Amino acid sequence: MKAGRSKEPLAGHLFPFLDYCEIEKGLSNNTQKNYKQYLQLFVNWLQENGDEKLLPHQLTPTHIWDYRLYLARTYRTPSGKHLGKKSQNYYLIALRALLNFLAERDIETLPSSKVKLAKQKSEETISFLETHDIEKMLKIPDTKTPNGLRDRTIMELFFSSGMRISELVALNVEQLSFLKDKNTKKTFELSIVGKGRHVRTIFISPRAAQWLRTYLASRPDVHKPLFINLRLKDADNRRLSPRYIQKMISRCAILAGLSKKVTPHTLRHTYATDLLSHGADLRSVQELLGHKNVATTQIYTHVTNKRLREIHEKFHGGSEIDNK
């Protein structure tokens, strides 16, 4: 079927696209929220340039190039910072998804392949910590206080399970009922709904399980979320936000004397590299992380390969040249 021309401006297709993401694609609420945020910036950019009535078939590669320049050089986040290449790509991927939606609806528009992503250096895509750095961070929260105990438990769970931040904040107390088993040497399994609403199993180490027990025992309330904001009085809106957790982890890293930027995803990277460096195979790590494609997991191999080289150079007896 030949694609037809829509009389509705590009901006007018935003909400039908979000409905499509929910109903047909089954994307998580978090993904839908991100798409809305990313595409709203594109809509605002069109308005600022007098193109609010731009029709889908009128979109050109020049528009895309100018928008890429805007993302890279002009736009600033609410904190006043420029977008990194990885963040720029989130906005461009959302735009690609919108164009694919229009094409699927037989609406004439620019092919999504014309939206090129910013090239990233491989080392920019992965940052991880050494185990001793993790231990330094874990000692920062004052576990004698409710907030400190909660924050220590959050970091223990991150490092034990490799969870995404969206997965962790979505946890509810009722999911942890198996912790009534007080076996201090047992690793527990927990089924969670991950990215793309795929169910996967994560593992909670004996140490993380003990911190969870201690944290839950300190909770006098009956609120549903596992991790709550203790300052909020609204009983229906006490689930801890991803933003709080990001700031908390960044603060702990700074107070621990770490020079690199640390995020919840850094802990996920650390979890993966720790497994691989101790001999876990790539397919197993893929499953533990909930990666749909093993190619996504392969970003960690150059890190572990570098470590193996360092080990070889340090310990292999035949490394030095014999000049005798």
SSE topology sketch:
Elements: H1 14-23, H2 29-48, H3 61-74, H4 85-104, H5 131-138, H6 146-161, H7 165-169, E1 188-193, E2 199-204, H8 206-217, H9 242-255, H10 264-277, H11 282-289, H12 294-297, H13 301-315
Antiparallel strand pairs: 1-2
Helix pairs in contact: 1-2, 2-4, 5-9, 6-8, 6-10
Describe this structure in words.
This protein is mainly alpha-helical and 324 residues long. It has 2 domains: 111 residues, DNA polymerase, domain 1; 182 residues, Orthogonal Bundle (hpI Integrase, Chain A), CATH 1.10.443.10. It contains 13 helices and 2 strands. A two-stranded antiparallel sheet has the order 1-2. α1 packs antiparallel against α2, α2 packs across α4 and α5 packs across α9.
User: Assembly type of the shown chains?
Assistant: single chain
CATH architecture level-2 label of the largest domain: Orthogonal Bundle
What's the rounded overall pLDDT mean? Answer: 86
Give the domain tally: 2
Structural class: mainly alpha
Please report the number of helical segments: 13
Strand content: under 5%
The CATH homologous superfamily of the largest domain is termed: Intergrase catalytic core
- Lateral strand order in the biggest sheet: 1-2
Q: Determine Rg (CA atoms, Å).
A: 23 Å
CATH topology of the largest domain: hpI Integrase, Chain A
Overall, the morphology is: globular
Broad CATH class of the largest domain: Mainly Alpha
Q: Count the strands? A: 2
In terms of per-residue confidence, which ranges show pLDDT below 50 for 5 or more consecutive residues? none
- In which range does the helix fraction lie? 40-55%
What's the helix-strand series?
HHHHHHHEEHHHHHH
